[in-house]
TrEMBL record:
Name used for this protein in its record: Phosphoenolpyruvate carboxylase kinase 2
SMART domains linked: S_TKc (SM00220)
Organism taxonomic ancestry: Eukaryota, Viridiplantae, Streptophyta, Embryophyta, Tracheophyta
Species: Solanum lycopersicum (Tomato)
InterPro entries: CDPK_Ser/Thr_kinases (IPR050205), Kinase-like_dom_sf (IPR011009), Prot_kinase_dom (IPR000719), Protein_kinase_ATP_BS (IPR017441), Ser/Thr_kinase_AS (IPR008271)
Residues the record lists as binding ATP: K38
Family to which the UniProt record says this protein belongs: Belongs to the protein kinase superfamily. CAMK Ser/Thr protein kinase family. CaMK subfamily.
Keywords: ATP-binding, Kinase, Nucleotide-binding, Pyruvate, Serine/threonine-protein kinase, Transferase
A GO molecular-function descriptor: ATP binding
Length: 278
């Protein structure tokens, strides 16, 4: 951890640990205000140019996206010879993965309370030319006042309108089929991942699954979206309509973030039972 950080912040207990860095709670020496600090040991990535680029991209992208009410805000960045430290907004109330573990199935109104701020965060990223590329429940955090914050931009990439990206990124259950197929792809991979999250909230199970990573990938590539009646009997037609539009294998037919936000299920707080054709 850099000495310049320690001059301005008092570092406390560990909050989490990743591949290259550790997140700690900290507070400002001047104001006492609480933050999180993500401290990355640059020595761990000294020999890997791609990982090193991802590290610097994350700091640059988070700075570009801040401030936004639904994206974890970066306040300060410190760097010395061995560490890169990012002082971040503190999200002290867990993540969506933890909430799904304790409450496997959400009501539609609870699901929409997650989806609206999540899609606002994704729309903000896409408007600024940033694809997150690893949308999953672990990266959706909550503050003490229950505000949703999209986090972890370590896999994110900047793009220009109409420009395609490449590279296999993401997490098995949530990754879009065009990524697994090795094709170039657009920012709509984030819509697919958010659609998987919505399906899991409403069903308690992922839409495409298997007993191993390779089986999951095969199921994602087939993209055979189903709504088993025993699970979806009480889910509204409007919710299923939105899922079809987010989990469309045909990227040209898949909704954008702005289209998702305008969908009747999103604008009616999940209470609409039918949906007019688009």
């Amino acid at each position: 951890m850099s000495e310049s950080l320690k001059r301005n912040y008092c570092v406390g207990g560990e909050l989490g640990r990743g591949r290259f860095g550790t997140v700690f709670k900290c507070y400002s020496s001047a104001t006492g205000e609480l933050f999180a600090v993500k401290s990355i040991d640059k020595r761990l990535i000294a020999d890997d140019a791609i990982d090193r680029q991802c590290l610097y991209n994350e700091a640059k992208i988070m700075h570009l996206l801040s401030p936004n009410p639904n994206v974890v805000r970066v306040f300060d960045i410190y760097e010395d010879d061995t560490h890169l430290d990012m002082v971040l907004e503190l999200c002290n109330s867990g993540d969506l993965f933890q909430r799904l573990s304790s409450q496997p199935i959400f009501s539609e109104s609870d699901a929409v309370d997650v989806m609206v701020p999540l899609m606002k965060a994704i729309a903000h990223c896409h408007r600024l030319g940033v694809a997150h590329r690893d949308i999953k429940p672990d990266n959706i955090l909550f503050t003490d006042s229950n505000e949703l914050k999209l986090a972890d931009f370590g896999s994110a990439e900047c793009f220009h309108e109409g420009q395609l990206m490449s590279g296999v990124v993401g997490t098995p259950y949530y990754v879009a089929p065009e990524v697994l197929a090795g094709r170039n792809y657009s920012e709509k991979i984030d819509i697919w991942s958010a659609g998987v999250i919505l399906y899991i909230m409403l069903a308690g199970v992922p839409p495409f699954f298997g007993d191993s990573a390779s089986e999951i990938f095969e199921a994602v590539l087939r993209a055979n979206l189903r709504f088993p009646p025993r699970i979806f009997h009480s889910v509204s037609p409007a919710a299923k309509d939105l899922l079809r539009r987010m989990l469309s294998k045909d990227v040209s037919r898949r909704f954008s973030a702005e289209q998702v936000l305008r969908h009747p299920w999103m604008t009616s707080n999940g209470e609409i039972r039918t949906v007019a054709p688009f």
